[in-house]
């Protein structure tokens, strides 16, 4: 039992990485009606900025993070205003191709601006451990868990209980109707892009200390986040987040408790997810959209 609690808590930590990225994907999808395939690349770019300030310029991590957040906000606003807003006639697939182009752009810019070497980013909380049922957990790991959950609760409360959230939900339901009702849909989509890239940055800052900041260090997080979005369903904001935590828990359980789990854990997880999609093609929390004529 103690071992399972350890596996469960570690799953929650990694699940936070995936959930933040999944929430960023669904936030853009629901407001801009497109899938942003460049989400991880944009997170990588801003994480590289923070790592460069810390490693090469000698900044404190806590001083560099606000600069990264500011960069993420500005980047999100510029992408929406200059690119996405001008591609209204491109359609959903056209916008997706644009986001694929953004991957190439920022993968090219990153080594030019930040150099070609991988950078090591320190943990947000550098020292200290706590034993939980005999399982040692760093304070940083516990911070990742609780901070990730705090962000989710804050976002969902904002979406469900505030006027800002009402504007987001109205825009997500029908942008044209929302505009007629006086909702500033352009401001909503601009804010959604900015917030989505900030969420990707936070996911990157949490992930980086477990590897190193490189051009591809967010790829696994991105893939898992997209899986969570598909399995959870594109119809709700909470579905992909719940699926992200569920995928993390299942993967760790398979890898720890199955024979040769480190080898077969992921293939079996993908088989389970395919089985879920067979019976729930619109996602666990999704539903088929019916157009009324």
TrEMBL record:
<protein>
    <submittedName>
        <fullName>Branched-chain amino acid ABC transporter permease</fullName>
    </submittedName>
</protein>
<keyword id="KW-0472">Membrane</keyword>
<feature type="transmembrane region" description="Helical">
    <location>
        <begin position="12"/>
        <end position="29"/>
    </location>
</feature>
<dbReference type="GO" id="GO:0005886">
    <property type="term" value="C:plasma membrane"/>
</dbReference>
<keyword id="KW-0813">Transport</keyword>
<dbReference type="InterPro" id="IPR001851">
    <property type="entry name" value="ABC_transp_permease"/>
</dbReference>
<keyword id="KW-0812">Transmembrane</keyword>
<keyword id="KW-1003">Cell membrane</keyword>
<dbReference type="Pfam" id="PF02653">
    <property type="entry name" value="BPD_transp_2"/>
</dbReference>
<keyword id="KW-1133">Transmembrane helix</keyword>
<dbReference type="GO" id="GO:0022857">
    <property type="term" value="F:transmembrane transporter activity"/>
</dbReference>
<feature type="transmembrane region" description="Helical">
    <location>
        <begin position="188"/>
        <end position="211"/>
    </location>
</feature>
<dbReference type="GO" id="GO:0006865">
    <property type="term" value="P:amino acid transport"/>
</dbReference>
<dbReference type="InterPro" id="IPR052157">
    <property type="entry name" value="BCAA_transport_permease"/>
</dbReference>
<feature type="transmembrane region" description="Helical">
    <location>
        <begin position="136"/>
        <end position="159"/>
    </location>
</feature>
<feature type="transmembrane region" description="Helical">
    <location>
        <begin position="268"/>
        <end position="285"/>
    </location>
</feature>
<comment type="similarity">
    <text>Belongs to the binding-protein-dependent transport system permease family. LivHM subfamily.</text>
</comment>
<feature type="transmembrane region" description="Helical">
    <location>
        <begin position="96"/>
        <end position="116"/>
    </location>
</feature>
<keyword id="KW-0029">Amino-acid transport</keyword>
<feature type="transmembrane region" description="Helical">
    <location>
        <begin position="223"/>
        <end position="247"/>
    </location>
</feature>
<feature type="transmembrane region" description="Helical">
    <location>
        <begin position="61"/>
        <end position="84"/>
    </location>
</feature>
<feature type="transmembrane region" description="Helical">
    <location>
        <begin position="36"/>
        <end position="55"/>
    </location>
</feature>
